From TrEMBL:
The lineage of its organism: Eukaryota, Metazoa, Ecdysozoa, Arthropoda, Hexapoda. It comes from the Eukaryota. GO terms for molecular function: structural constituent of ribosome. The keyword Ribosomal protein applies. One of its GO terms (biological process) is translation. This is Large ribosomal subunit protein eL34. InterPro entries: Ribosomal_eL34, Ribosomal_eL34_C_sf.
Amino acid sequence: IKNGAAVSLSTTFVLQHQKQSEAVRTPGGKLVYQYLKKPKKIPRCGQCKDKLRGIQPARPMERSRMCKRKKTVKRVYGGVLCHKCVKERIVRAFLIEEQKIVVKVLKAQQASAKAKKEK
């Protein structure tokens, strides 16, 4: 079985995680195996799954020990969404507000037109 050892528990097989190792030659000339750490995860945007720039990739425990400036970006939704998605949200919110204002103005115009007809 690739990347795991099969362990028999009654009739089921459980795949166990094996640590990855690398052969390294020491200064004394010996060839020894060193266990490798798991690869660091690159933070990604919650919406478009694009890589987040300005945030250091790290393992969860390592990230908990990092200072705040390495974990976030000083922007709205910094460290959660990429700049494109934030821009898209801001533009969408602005357009929705503009649309609400247009609807109010149209209702006011219709009401004033109705009042003029009744007179």
